[in-house]
Amino acid sequence: MNDTSGRAGATASRVICNIDFDKPGKQVGYLRVPFSRNDAGWGTIEVPIAVVNGAPGGARAMFSGGVHGDEYEGQIAVARLARTIDAASLRGRLILMPMVDLPAALAGRRLCPLDDRDLNRQFPGDARGSFTQMLAHFIDSVVLPQLEVTVDVHSGGHGMESALSTNMHYLDDARQRERTLALAGAFGAPFNVVFWGVDEGATMPSAGEKRGLLAIGTELGGWGRVNVEGVRIAERGLRNVLKHLGMVDGVPDTGQRDGTATTRHMGVRSQEQYVFAPTDGLFEPRHVAAQDVSAGEVAGTVHFPEDWSRAPIELRYGRSGVLWMAMGPGRCRKGDTVAVVMEDLEP
Ligand code: CA
To answer: What is the 220 CA–ligand 1 centroid distance (Å)?
Structure first.
């Protein structure tokens, strides 16, 4: 019983965990995050977690889904892996969290409805904060220190659709960078995007990197639906990572539908690779994710059907490459990202 609520000091977690992280075999249970309601003063929100301890000596990894509630591929893939994996065939420790931001996932939305926060902007969290702050604090202070590797499965949510891809930060440490590139390559998505992050300090991968972990994420679909190929890539990718880390037997299968044998490594470094909406309006995209696009080509048009006096505005790509992220919901606001172009990674 890892009841961390009794720890002394200002940073002790209020989250109760009924899992013993060190016990051999497979356990499924919950992180109980206190949440007081009018009709339940001692209420808790139960966030599902599974821990699988196999033979000693293997790697220690966490696979997560549902950090954003409207991204479904990871929720499906991580939950199915938790139900099917056998401790007898595993080396090391695997922690599986299929619905990390549980209230957001049940509501099918990005932000947590209990505190209107984005869990992936809350790290390292706050032991005495709101729901997402307490959850981030528990993950950062109790879960991440046990680990060497995290794979956080995302997609584009309602706002965007992505080319099927893993992603990682550009790491200054050459050895960490090569190890992370190898991990992403083993996952085997069609693309891997190395990005020089904006607003990244408070994300879960950043929290892992600060603790010396190898951290990759994914973008496997979006537009508020389940991407069929995204689920296939997620499930294969998580199994591939277990093989790559030597946690299960086998060799990663990284073959692609187009006949290529491996992941195509890409980069997003320049602000010119982003297209922003210059004004509120109705955005008509010209391309879908994973299409080739060219600098100067029309990326889409912002329309104002409500106002005869306003002509539509054409937006153009600043760089050539492959469309990584494509906006889809129609209405855009001034300053929104409507497209992100990735370029082949220079060696
Ligand atoms: Ca996301």
So the answer is: 10
